[in-house]
Amino acid sequence: MGGGVLYQAFIYLAAAVVMVPIAKKLGLGSVLGYLLAGVAIGPFGLHLLGSEGQDVMHFAEFGVVMMLFIVGLELRPALLWRLRAPILGLGGLQVLLTTVVLAGAAAAFGLPSKMAVAIGLTLSMSSTAIVLQTLNEKQLLKSDGGQSAFAVLLFQDIAVIPILAVFPLLATAGHAAGDSHAAATLLDGLPSWAQPLAVLAAVVLVVGGSRFLVRPIFRAIAQTRLREIFVAAALLLIIGIALLMGQVGLSPALGTFLAGVVLADSEYRHELESDIDPFKGLLLGLFFLAVGATIDFGLIVSRPLLIAGLVAGIVIAKFAVLWGLGRAFGLSRDQGSLLAFSLPQVGEFAFVLFSYGIPLGVFTAAVASPLVAAVALSMAITPLLIVLNERVVQPRLCAREPKDERKADTIDEHAAVLIAGFGSFGSTVGRLLRANGVATTVLDLDADRVELLRRLGLKVYYGDASRYDLLLAAGAEKARLLVIALDSAEKTLQLVHTVKTHFPQITIMARAFDWEDAHDLTEAGVGHVYSQSLDTSLRVGVDALHYLGFRAYHSHRSARQFLRHDLESLRELTADRKVSQARYLTAARKRIEDLERLLEADRADRGADADMGWDAETLREDVRGMTR
Amino acid sequence: MSFPLLYRQDGTGVQVDRKNPSETPGDRHRATLPSTSTQIRRRPILDPMARILILFAHPALEKSRVHRRLIARIPQLPGLTFQDLYEAYPTFDIDVEREQALLESHDVIVLQHPFFWYSTPAILKQWQDLVLEHGWAYGSKGTALRGKRLFNLLTAGGREPGYHRDGHNGHTVRELLAPIEQTVRLCNMQYLPPYVIFGTHWMAEPDIDAVADRYQALLMALHSDRVNYDQVAGLQTLNPVVDAVIEEGAR
To answer: A167 near A362, Cβ under 8 Å?
Structure first.
């Protein structure tokens, strides 16, 4: 396809802009959206792109390098040190066991043993790009399962280096191993004893440089107050490290990861993160697009059973190993399942290893090309597997576990009160209810919190509370009350609509973040709307009045009176809103207008004294008049 | 901007003193009245001093003319404690343990309040309901209050003649306070007739000053045990006894 860079950029961006929001809306995540977009524009879709997908992919792999830099930035050295057991143990065993199983299978199909080992090693890799992006997007990276997946991926990143080193030894065809060496590095010119020293020196340079050189340099750059130069410096740092690592034959991703970890404690952490993040996002997106575009549908169509069998065999074998390891390393069932469902695909390193191994004579093209197709497909189904885990498997696991542990004190199957969101707001409500012996069922999206609450014996369902199936599983059909304490106004409204449609018998009590929300919720038919900071701010007001010398009782009464007045104002405002909506005010303009109305209403109300009963003035005048 | 009146120890209703906002009514109290914790102390056996607890209830002291002036005249005496219930419990969450401890460490309990609908302001009822627990204040094991004395010190807008069988209120103040009298008896305490400041609706500033003088004199007399409790049992009010004590002091 002609048209040059701009044309290509247009195609890629258009595909992404169309497909990613659709996939996201369907709850499939952005990665699957990019993959589908790639398929759509690729040679087997609309044929807007030719074979350049392969080249684009190599370029876009740099997104992975940036991603690991950002991952490193979020991972302080102390945390990394704490992960050493899962990295070495879980990661090491995953690579070892998967290699043994898959190599055994390859050998059983009659492939030479050396090639079988090479295939096992290659297929044991998982996709850092897809998995980290997906887990991050679903906020699962901080959970036990997510951390384990990360540890395994990190080990694989490290393991690529020795694998690349042993590949020449695995060449079966034995032809011309030295000639077609893919990457010529600095090391080639060095004597063999100096090579490990050079590698070590490079690592020391990255770590030491990040620690002692980068900070003063960034400080100097920050003082120029030229933001684009700071961005340029950040990119320069990453590209420089990537080049250096390439020169000594180490993974660039590993190098930038190390630099990220070292800089995690620095004051420029957040700036670096926000500067690199858009580049990372776009490059990763491009990478996924390229993966989608390079899936060889010709091969899949001509030998569908072989490819399907390969994908199924590989994924099932890797899944089984991960599942077993998860249990062996003490992960709970749901976290183990997250690990196993996250990592059973084969990763982008496999493309590298295949393309590196074929000229070496490690693989024959006839063996490699169906495997490459299978790898691409396995990557494509990963987001689907994670969705499957989230929607089908997790709810089952979550529903089962609490029942096993506590049969005794559950009188009926489901509590009459559901609480959606168990952050500080929801948990306060829940604790008060529990303190009064009211059983509650909690719906929450924070995997760690779910884990903790379940250990404490609470009935907790993991997942997006606005989903019909989750609500059903949590017993919404029999529930009397739903307390919504979700973190976003959008989700709250979504949940309200789901409940109003499917479970109309439930009374909803919802937290509102501001007037706008309160108004939306009232319009959506929620009778009990609570502005989240109203009570707290009134308490501050009470204390302020008391501090200034007002009587405590007067301060309290006037706050309660104010609360009534405020709720009344909200009702009036909601009614007025319908009128002002016609004027298409901007949200900000509307807020100012709301505030203005409120202040006016406050002033009008101040003259009225609610405590007439305690005021003897009129009575005094009355009785004195009578006797006169 | 107008702020509600605040009460002050000097009895003048003033607006918030914004020059010195850190000074609160609480501070003013602390300035003239030692805090409760320093008040409570053991009574030496031979000391004639009576420990007095004033349980004060006025929901809108900032509007009061008389009580504000009365409490400004509370003398600083060892063993005299002033407990402002509406200020201490604006949400009606009464600290039962603390209130019981206060009762236990005093000899004479004064319920000081305006006469609202022939009774006390609401918080005093809440106080009775929560503090006078079975097994502590009454019942076969409830002996914590045995032998203590209690009376109401109240202000009434109407004048004295209205509070008689043939007056327009139809009863004496003591009769109207029958529930409290019986409560006190059930709690093994000695009930004293109420000290009533009648006719506050008709009082001008000098009248209030006079009333405040007598109030202070009454507290001093109670404190130094100069009240002859044997004479009071049959009286409708404590007022004549106070008159006598004051005359005695003047002589």
So the answer is: yes
